[in-house]
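queue> pop job 88
queue> type: inverse folding (structure -> sequence)
queue> payload:
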């Protein structure tokens, strides 16, 4: 039995990169180190393979670490520049709003353009809170009803509309809006039911509008640009078939984290909204149908590409390892059966 530290040093000492490929480098190292795999223990084989991998891949490992460091620096720089971009947009709109303050029509137009120009994701909670509080400060209840629902609808639509319909992203946006409404409702219990119902109706309307916009974009999108929206064909189809379930789950999840009073209200509102979700179900189904009819060939093409990918070195290695795992399991099972038989035979004797 060879000392593992000695084995490691020996392998690394004789390993040479002068040969053109890994196969020749490994064979040469084994030959120069006078190692016979069949005579090694499990620990020695582990040390041998670890040493070979380390000495062969050291430069690659260093390159990967350098690239990861660069990636982190780039991500930090991107985050900083994205913040600066947002701030620049805010400043431009603030200047314009001050300039046209007396003209309400122009101010309203600027407001709509601003919603479409800035990233609402980062300021979503604060914006929703401000919207609800402003609505509550109005004197007439009817004005509150209409304004709150419509503004929440617009905010929801603008926050969701860009890019693909990613369930995680949509869930986070809707959950953030509802959680913020719940916080305000907790502070104003006499208006809680009205706040929650109007917020949820606005959220539903905004989601319907966002899905409808997505449907229009898919219907008229050039086939060459399909990958922009249809990154994962099967997932998008599945998500669209359960948007009503997603909406209800968000309500019930937030309800479970709320006070007893608001939990009861949210569960009741969720029941009442069951039939109101028919429009959401319909537009989601229509969108799924458009995707199927428009990009079914694309999906088939993706399957063909997957077939080609299965012939790649990585896929072949995965297949080989799967087969080896089965063979190893058979060997272990066979050994266990043999041991059991030996014990039984001894008992019989």
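queue> result:
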């Amino acid at each position: 039995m060879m000392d593992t530290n000695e084995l490691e040093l020996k392998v690394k000492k004789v390993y040479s990169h002068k040969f053109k490929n890994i196969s020749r480098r490994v064979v040469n190292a084994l030959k120069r180190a006078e190692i016979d795999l069949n005579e090694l223990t499990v620990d020695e084989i582990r040390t041998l393979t670890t040493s070979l991998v380390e000495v062969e891949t050291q430069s690659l490992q260093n390159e990967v670490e350098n690239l990861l460091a660069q990636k982190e620096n780039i991500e930090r720089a991107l985050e900083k520049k994205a913040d600066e971009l947002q701030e620049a947009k805010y400043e431009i709109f603030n200047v314009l709003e001050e300039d046209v303050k007396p003209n309400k029509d122009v101010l309203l137009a600027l407001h709509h353009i601003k919603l479409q120009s800035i990233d609402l994701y980062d300021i979503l909670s604060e914006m929703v809170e401000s919207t609800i509080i402003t609505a509550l400060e109005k004197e007439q209840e009817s004005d509150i009803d209409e304004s709150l629902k419509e503004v929440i609808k617009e905010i929801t639509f603008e926050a969701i509309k860009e890019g693909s319909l990613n369930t995680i992203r949509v869930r986070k946006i809707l959950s953030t809006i509802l959680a913020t409404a719940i916080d305000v409702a907790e502070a104003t219990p006499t208006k809680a039911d009205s706040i929650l119902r109007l917020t949820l109706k606005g959220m539903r309307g905004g989601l319907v509008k966002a899905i409808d916009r997505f449907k229009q974009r898919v219907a008229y999108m050039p086939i060459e640009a399909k990958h922009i929206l249809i990154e994962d064909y099967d997932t998008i189809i599945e998500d669209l078939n359960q948007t009503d379930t997603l909406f209800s789950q968000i309500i019930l999840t937030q309800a479970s984290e709320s006070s007893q009073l608001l939990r009861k209200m949210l569960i009741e509102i969720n029941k009442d909204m069951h039939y109101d979700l028919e429009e959401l179900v319909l537009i989601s189904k229509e969108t799924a149908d458009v995707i199927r009819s428009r990009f079914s060939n694309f999906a088939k093409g993706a399957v063909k590409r997957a077939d080609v990918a299965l012939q790649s070195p990585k896929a072949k290695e995965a297949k080989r390892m799967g087969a080896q795992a089965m063979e190893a399991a058979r060997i272990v099972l066979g050994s266990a059966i043999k041991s059991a038989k030996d014990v039984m035979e001894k008992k019989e004797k």
